[in-house]
Design brief:
20% strand; alpha+beta; DEN5A/B; single chain; Beta-Lactamase; 8 strands; 284 residues; globular; 34% helix; 6-stranded antiparallel β-sheet; two-stranded antiparallel sheet
Length: 284
């Protein structure tokens, strides 16, 4: 039986420099996109511990759900704000385990990856020029009118470009907690503080491994009806578990539902739930 730990796994997902840039089949064909706008296959780079008997690690599911859009590449000209999301893995017996992921961007230090991205751009631009070079007669009309679609589209197509001698390449990476209960706010704070410690110019008070060990092995699940306070890298973290007589744990801000769906859609959704209609949410 599970020992009642706050978290079962700490996971790192991202770019495997040994296998290099692999297209992400789950995202569909996207070769018409510029290389910086394509998605590439992410992998589970590390997990701690290796396995726990009460919650076997599903590498494929965790890898896909941690980074559902695969690897993303950006340059110094793009916004690189960290993004947080959560997910649920439901097993065949109906039991659930919860995941919380913080995705951020870090500089690519592998020269091979940078060269591969540059090569993809050379190939993409060459193919694009072949497909969009106007015929001889068209060139004359373009020059006379000053309005050539091939030229304008080419400029737009090459706007999001990468030059290895000029640009800094960044790739997405993810740190994740796999937990038996959905303490979203606490997990988000843990991950944000770990990320802050990695990116801060000053080292944290203790080695990062100490904080990860603490969250995995020393922080227990709070008993029903009780709250729990434990130390993060830079400050205390608090979570509360409802008692058996209260509504189940729901640690997500309801405000976000209204922001994402709007009041009318929320009312319609609530009406459908009360009338026991089947509901399908489709998201981009």
């Amino acid at each position: 039986s599970a020992p009642g730990r706050f978290a079962d796994y700490f996971v790192i997902c991202g770019l495997d420099t040994e296998t290099g840039l692999e297209p992400d089949e789950l995202s569909g064909e996207n070769f018409e996109q510029t290389p910086l706008r394509r998605t590439f296959k992410s992998k589970v780079l590390a997990r701690y511990p290796e396995n726990v008997e009460w919650n076997p690690f599903d590498q494929d599911a965790v890898g896909m759900l941690c980074m559902p859009k695969g690897l993303a590449f950006k340059t110094q000209a793009d916004s690189r704000e960290p993004q947080f999301h959560s997910f649920i893995i439901t097993r065949e017996d109906g039991s659930r385990t919860f995941g919380f992921s913080l995705t951020f961007f870090e500089e690519v230090t592998s020269k091979q990856i940078c060269s591969a991205m540059q090569t993809l751009y050379h190939m993409h631009n060459a193919e694009y020029d072949i497909l969009h070079t106007p015929a001889t007669n068209d060139k004359e009309s373009c020059s006379s009118t000053g309005d050539c679609n091939g030229t304008s589209v080419s400029k737009l197509q090459r706007f999001n470009s990468y030059d290895i001698s000029r640009d800094t390449l960044y790739v997405s990476k993810c740190i994740c907690l796999i937990t038996p209960m959905s303490f979203m706010k606490a997990c988000k704070k843990v991950l944000e503080q770990l990320h802050q410690a990695v990116t801060s110019p000053q080292p944290p008070p203790l080695p990062l491994e100490s904080y990860i060990y603490n969250i995995l092995y020393e922080v227990p699940l709070p008993p029903a009806g009780r709250s729990l306070k434990f130390s993060g890298v830079y400050g205390p973290i608090i979570c509360q578990r409802p008692s058996t007589s209260e509504l189940p744990l729901f640690d997500f801000p309801v405000k976000e539902v209204f922001e994402l769906l709007g009041v009318e859609n929320v009312v319609q959704l609530f009406t459908c739930a009360l009338l026991e209609f089947q509901i399908l949410l489709y998201s981009q």
